[in-house]
Design brief:
The chain has 134 residues and is mainly alpha-helical. It is 62% helix and 0% strand. It starts with a helix and ends in a 6-residue tail after the last helix.
C-alpha cells in the first residue's frame, strides 16, 4: 500500500504471474499517481480489459447466486464492527490489546475469528470459573 501511495508499485510478485497484461494495464491506469494524468471513469470503461470481459459468457446460475449473496451481505454490520474495533484499539494500550487478543484466541475454540455465545460461555467457565447466563 505504501508503494501504491507513492506511485511506485510493480507486478513482480508471484501472485501476478497468472494475471493478464490487459488486467495489469487496467490496474496501472487506475493507480496513476498524478490525478491530472489519471484516466477518467469514462475512459476506463472502454479499456481493452473491460471490453474483453464484456464478450465473455456468464453462467446465469452463478451470477444469480452471486447477486443473492451480495444482497445478504450486511455492509452496515461490517462497518459498525470495524468502527467499534478501531475505537477500542485507540482506547487501549498495546499491552491491553495483546492481553485481549490472547483471551479472544483462547475463547475462539473453532478458530473462525468470531466468538459464538457458546464459545464465550465455555471460555468464561474454563478460564474464569464463572458461569454466564444467556
Amino acid at each position: 500500500m505504501k508503494k501504491v501511495r507513492e506511485g511506485q508499485f510493480s507486478f513482480e510478485d508471484r501472485v501476478w504471474q497468472t494475471i493478464s497484461e490487459n488486467a495489469k494495464s487496467f490496474i496501472s491506469s487506475l493507480l496513476t499517481y498524478s490525478s491530472a494524468e489519471r484516466p477518467s471513469a469514462g475512459e476506463m470503461l472502454v479499456h481493452p480489459w473491460l471490453t474483453e470481459l464484456a464478450t465473455l459468457q456468464v453462467d446465469e446460475t452463478m451470477a444469480i447466486n452471486a447477486l443473492e449473496n451480495l444482497g445478504k451481505f450486511n455492509a452496515d454490520a461490517t462497518l459498525k464492527q470495524a468502527t467499534f474495533s478501531f475505537i477500542a484499539s485507540q482506547l487501549m494500550s498495546k499491552q491491553e490489546r495483546d492481553n485481549l487478543s490472547k483471551v479472544f484466541k483462547a475463547f475462539d475454540t473453532n478458530g473462525d475469528g468470531k466468538l459464538s455465545m457458546e464459545e464465550v460461555k465455555v471460555g468464561y467457565l474454563e478460564h474464569y470459573g464463572k458461569v454466564m447466563s444467556d
